[in-house]
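User: Could you write out the 3D structure of this protein bound to coenzyme A? I've included everything you need below.
Assistant: Certainly. Input first, then the structure.
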Amino acid sequence: MIPIETSRLLMRPLSVADAEPLAAVFSDPEVMRWSDGLLDAAGIRDWLGKRIAGDPLRPWIGPWAVVQKSTSNVIGYCGFFYFPDIIGLPETEIGFRLVRACWGQGLATEAARAALARGFDLYNLERVIALIAPENVASIRVAEKLGMRYEHDVMLEGYTYPDRVYVIHRPNRLC
Ligand SMILES: CC(C)(COP(=O)(O)OP(=O)(O)OC[C@H]1O[C@@H](n2cnc3c(N)ncnc32)[C@H](O)[C@@H]1OP(=O)(O)O)[C@@H](O)C(=O)NCCC(=O)NCCS
Protein backbone atom coordinates (compact mmCIF):
# COMPACT_ATOMS: atom_id res chain seq x y z
CA MET A 1 0.00 0.00 0.00
CA ILE A 2 1.48 3.31 -1.04
CA PRO A 3 0.83 6.03 1.56
CA ILE A 4 -1.56 8.87 0.78
CA GLU A 5 -1.30 12.41 2.08
CA THR A 6 -4.24 14.82 2.28
CA SER A 7 -4.34 18.27 3.81
CA ARG A 8 -5.01 16.97 7.32
CA LEU A 9 -4.24 13.27 7.12
CA LEU A 10 -1.51 10.79 6.40
CA MET A 11 -2.82 7.39 5.32
CA ARG A 12 -0.20 4.68 5.57
CA PRO A 13 -0.12 0.88 5.72
CA LEU A 14 -1.33 -0.62 8.97
CA SER A 15 1.23 -2.16 11.34
CA VAL A 16 1.00 -4.36 14.42
CA ALA A 17 1.91 -1.30 16.52
CA ASP A 18 -1.46 0.21 15.54
CA ALA A 19 -3.24 -2.26 17.85
CA GLU A 20 -2.95 0.15 20.76
CA PRO A 21 -4.39 3.31 19.15
CA LEU A 22 -7.02 1.27 17.30
CA ALA A 23 -8.30 -0.09 20.63
CA ALA A 24 -10.03 3.30 21.02
CA VAL A 25 -11.96 2.44 17.86
CA PHE A 26 -12.70 -1.24 18.35
CA SER A 27 -13.63 -1.08 22.05
CA ASP A 28 -16.03 1.87 21.78
CA PRO A 29 -19.65 0.64 21.55
CA GLU A 30 -20.71 3.84 19.79
CA VAL A 31 -18.04 3.49 17.10
CA MET A 32 -18.82 -0.22 16.72
CA ARG A 33 -22.60 0.20 16.85
CA TRP A 34 -23.07 -0.71 13.19
CA SER A 35 -20.74 -3.72 13.10
CA ASP A 36 -20.70 -7.33 14.19
CA GLY A 37 -19.37 -6.44 17.67
CA LEU A 38 -16.56 -5.03 19.81
CA LEU A 39 -13.04 -6.40 19.51
CA ASP A 40 -10.78 -7.15 22.49
CA ALA A 41 -6.97 -7.08 22.29
CA ALA A 42 -6.78 -10.56 20.74
CA GLY A 43 -9.54 -9.68 18.28
CA ILE A 44 -7.71 -6.52 17.24
CA ARG A 45 -4.47 -8.45 16.72
CA ASP A 46 -6.37 -10.97 14.58
CA TRP A 47 -8.09 -8.20 12.57
CA LEU A 48 -4.78 -6.41 12.04
CA GLY A 49 -3.01 -9.62 11.01
CA LYS A 50 -5.58 -10.30 8.30
CA ARG A 51 -5.57 -6.71 7.06
CA ILE A 52 -1.75 -6.51 7.00
CA ALA A 53 -1.57 -9.82 5.08
CA GLY A 54 -3.79 -8.24 2.44
CA ASP A 55 -4.87 -10.05 -0.70
CA PRO A 56 -2.12 -11.00 -3.14
CA LEU A 57 -4.58 -11.06 -6.05
CA ARG A 58 -5.98 -7.64 -5.20
CA PRO A 59 -3.24 -5.27 -3.99
CA TRP A 60 -5.72 -2.48 -3.26
CA ILE A 61 -7.42 -4.55 -0.52
CA GLY A 62 -6.60 -3.67 3.10
CA PRO A 63 -7.31 -0.34 4.71
CA TRP A 64 -4.79 2.38 5.46
CA ALA A 65 -4.14 3.55 9.02
CA VAL A 66 -5.49 7.11 9.22
CA VAL A 67 -3.06 9.42 11.01
CA GLN A 68 -3.98 12.99 11.93
CA LYS A 69 -1.05 15.11 10.82
CA SER A 70 -1.56 17.77 13.52
CA THR A 71 -1.15 15.24 16.36
CA SER A 72 0.56 12.26 14.64
CA ASN A 73 -2.14 10.10 16.27
CA VAL A 74 -3.68 7.10 14.54
CA ILE A 75 -7.36 8.01 14.57
CA GLY A 76 -8.84 5.09 12.64
CA TYR A 77 -8.74 3.29 9.35
CA CYS A 78 -10.08 3.75 5.86
CA GLY A 79 -9.74 1.69 2.71
CA PHE A 80 -10.86 -1.23 0.65
CA PHE A 81 -12.36 -4.58 1.62
CA TYR A 82 -13.25 -7.48 -0.67
CA PHE A 83 -16.66 -9.16 -0.68
CA PRO A 84 -16.68 -12.18 -3.00
CA ASP A 85 -20.45 -12.49 -3.16
CA ILE A 86 -22.82 -9.57 -2.88
CA ILE A 87 -25.95 -10.91 -4.53
CA GLY A 88 -23.82 -13.08 -6.79
CA LEU A 89 -21.14 -10.49 -7.62
CA PRO A 90 -17.65 -9.79 -6.23
CA GLU A 91 -17.45 -6.25 -4.90
CA THR A 92 -14.83 -3.86 -3.53
CA GLU A 93 -16.11 -1.98 -0.50
CA ILE A 94 -14.79 1.24 0.96
CA GLY A 95 -14.89 1.15 4.75
CA PHE A 96 -14.05 3.81 7.32
CA ARG A 97 -14.08 4.00 11.09
CA LEU A 98 -12.67 6.80 13.24
CA VAL A 99 -12.28 7.40 16.98
CA ARG A 100 -15.26 9.29 18.32
CA ALA A 101 -13.20 12.32 19.38
CA CYS A 102 -12.47 13.01 15.71
CA TRP A 103 -16.00 12.78 14.32
CA GLY A 104 -17.73 15.75 12.77
CA GLN A 105 -14.69 17.45 11.22
CA GLY A 106 -14.98 16.05 7.72
CA LEU A 107 -12.07 13.69 8.29
CA ALA A 108 -13.80 10.47 7.17
CA THR A 109 -14.88 12.15 3.96
CA GLU A 110 -11.36 13.49 3.40
CA ALA A 111 -9.84 10.02 3.94
CA ALA A 112 -12.40 8.15 1.85
CA ARG A 113 -12.22 10.65 -1.01
CA ALA A 114 -8.45 10.19 -1.18
CA ALA A 115 -8.78 6.39 -0.99
CA LEU A 116 -11.32 6.36 -3.81
CA ALA A 117 -9.09 8.53 -5.98
CA ARG A 118 -6.21 6.10 -5.39
CA GLY A 119 -8.45 3.13 -6.18
CA PHE A 120 -9.68 4.62 -9.43
CA ASP A 121 -6.39 6.15 -10.59
CA LEU A 122 -3.83 3.56 -9.56
CA TYR A 123 -5.79 0.34 -9.33
CA ASN A 124 -8.28 0.99 -12.11
CA LEU A 125 -11.22 0.01 -9.97
CA GLU A 126 -14.42 0.31 -11.98
CA ARG A 127 -16.91 0.25 -9.13
CA VAL A 128 -16.74 0.64 -5.36
CA ILE A 129 -19.57 0.07 -2.92
CA ALA A 130 -20.26 1.06 0.67
CA LEU A 131 -22.34 -1.27 2.86
CA ILE A 132 -24.20 0.86 5.37
CA ALA A 133 -26.84 0.16 8.01
CA PRO A 134 -30.00 2.13 7.16
CA GLU A 135 -29.90 4.05 10.46
CA ASN A 136 -26.19 4.92 10.21
CA VAL A 137 -26.92 8.45 9.08
CA ALA A 138 -23.35 9.73 9.48
CA SER A 139 -22.01 7.05 7.12
CA ILE A 140 -24.84 7.59 4.65
CA ARG A 141 -23.99 11.28 4.65
CA VAL A 142 -20.31 10.50 4.06
CA ALA A 143 -21.29 8.24 1.14
CA GLU A 144 -23.45 11.01 -0.32
CA LYS A 145 -20.65 13.56 0.04
CA LEU A 146 -18.38 11.14 -1.83
CA GLY A 147 -20.87 11.06 -4.70
CA MET A 148 -22.11 7.54 -3.98
CA ARG A 149 -25.69 6.59 -4.88
CA TYR A 150 -28.03 4.12 -3.18
CA GLU A 151 -28.48 1.03 -5.36
CA HIS A 152 -30.15 -1.78 -3.41
CA ASP A 153 -30.24 -3.59 -0.05
CA VAL A 154 -28.33 -6.73 0.90
CA MET A 155 -28.65 -9.09 3.86
CA LEU A 156 -25.12 -9.97 5.01
CA GLU A 157 -24.39 -13.20 6.88
CA GLY A 158 -24.56 -12.68 10.65
CA TYR A 159 -26.55 -9.46 10.48
CA THR A 160 -30.16 -9.02 11.58
CA TYR A 161 -31.00 -6.18 9.19
CA PRO A 162 -30.29 -5.53 5.53
CA ASP A 163 -27.48 -3.09 4.72
CA ARG A 164 -27.87 -0.43 2.10
CA VAL A 165 -25.50 -0.70 -0.85
CA TYR A 166 -24.17 2.69 -2.02
CA VAL A 167 -22.19 2.72 -5.26
CA ILE A 168 -19.70 4.90 -7.09
CA HIS A 169 -18.18 4.19 -10.51
CA ARG A 170 -14.83 5.33 -11.83
CA PRO A 171 -15.19 8.74 -13.43
CA ASN A 172 -14.80 8.79 -17.22
CA ARG A 173 -11.31 9.69 -18.34
CA LEU A 174 -10.71 12.22 -21.05
CA CYS A 175 -7.94 10.17 -22.64
C1 LIG B 1 -19.07 7.31 9.89
C2 LIG B 1 -17.86 8.06 10.40
C3 LIG B 1 -16.60 7.41 9.87
C4 LIG B 1 -17.97 9.51 9.96
O1 LIG B 1 -16.80 10.20 10.33
P1 LIG B 1 -16.73 11.80 10.32
O2 LIG B 1 -15.30 12.16 10.21
O3 LIG B 1 -17.51 12.34 11.45
O4 LIG B 1 -17.48 12.11 8.95
P2 LIG B 1 -17.56 13.51 8.22
O5 LIG B 1 -17.35 14.62 9.23
O6 LIG B 1 -16.67 13.46 7.03
O7 LIG B 1 -19.07 13.54 7.70
C5 LIG B 1 -20.13 13.18 8.56
C6 LIG B 1 -21.43 13.77 8.04
O8 LIG B 1 -22.52 13.13 8.69
C7 LIG B 1 -23.31 14.11 9.33
N1 LIG B 1 -23.88 13.52 10.52
C8 LIG B 1 -23.23 12.98 11.56
N2 LIG B 1 -24.10 12.52 12.47
C9 LIG B 1 -25.32 12.79 11.99
C10 LIG B 1 -26.64 12.57 12.47
N3 LIG B 1 -26.86 11.95 13.64
N4 LIG B 1 -27.69 12.96 11.70
C11 LIG B 1 -27.48 13.56 10.51
N5 LIG B 1 -26.23 13.80 9.99
C12 LIG B 1 -25.19 13.42 10.74
C13 LIG B 1 -22.36 15.25 9.62
O9 LIG B 1 -23.05 16.46 9.84
C14 LIG B 1 -21.54 15.24 8.33
O10 LIG B 1 -22.26 15.80 7.24
P3 LIG B 1 -22.04 17.35 6.77
O11 LIG B 1 -20.59 17.48 6.39
O12 LIG B 1 -22.97 17.51 5.61
O13 LIG B 1 -22.37 18.21 7.94
C15 LIG B 1 -17.78 8.01 11.93
O14 LIG B 1 -18.99 8.52 12.42
C16 LIG B 1 -17.58 6.61 12.44
O15 LIG B 1 -16.45 6.16 12.58
N6 LIG B 1 -18.68 5.92 12.76
C17 LIG B 1 -18.63 4.59 13.30
C18 LIG B 1 -18.14 3.59 12.31
C19 LIG B 1 -19.00 3.45 11.10
O16 LIG B 1 -20.22 3.50 11.20
N7 LIG B 1 -18.33 3.28 9.99
C20 LIG B 1 -18.97 3.10 8.72
C21 LIG B 1 -19.48 1.74 8.57
S1 LIG B 1 -20.40 1.66 7.05
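The domain at 4-169 is CATH 3.40.630.30 (Aminopeptidase).
User: Perfect, thank you.
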